[in-house]
Amino acid sequence: LNKLNKNSNKIYARKCLMREIDDNNLIRDFLNKNHIQGYVGSSVKIGLFYENELISLMTFGKTRKHMGYKSKENHYELLRFCNKLNTNVIGGASKLFKYFIEIYNPEEIITYADRSWSQGKLYYELKFSLVGKTEPNYNYYDMRCNKFNRFNFRKDVLIKNGYDSNKTEFEIMDELGYLRVFNSGNLKFLFKPITNKIL
Known about the structure:
The chain is an alpha+beta fold. Helix content is about 20%, strand content about 35%. It contains five helices and twelve strands. A seven-stranded mixed sheet has the order 2-3-4-5-7-12-8, with helices on both faces. The protein has a three-stranded antiparallel sheet with strand order 10-9-11, covered by helices on one side. The chain has a two-stranded parallel sheet with strand order 1-6. A hairpin with a 2-residue loop joins strand 3 and strand 4. It is globular.
């Protein structure tokens, strides 16, 4: 609905209160209800509140090892951004992102857009630069269509949990009844405050 500009509820970011959030239960619930990829852990969580209700959220964390990065001081990943379902918070992403830049003074920020459903329009608007594309990747789903990150089912983890070391990760997961589903790869974006300016 958001991509079709059919969200029924429009709220201007200037009418919202912005604050950092330390209630991880609130973050988990909001992301699982409103973000297509669901919850992921983060160290910085910034929200916009309208009439005491969280309606827009942006989260950041240190660059992730399993994404091929070593953690560096002042290097961050923009992990999640979403609004409440059926709500368009006009200017919300820009307001949240500017706050993060001003308060945390990052040296650089990376983020990814899943090519299965995004061309990265938001990141261009925030003055990120497209720096690459990743190969298709996969997640696992159980029979109830619950999604699980493949990182949690690496072969070394499965072996530690007692599964047959002579079998592949996929063979073990297949026997456990999980379905492996590939996406279309990601677009990779980079923001450097020195060279990228937000208005």
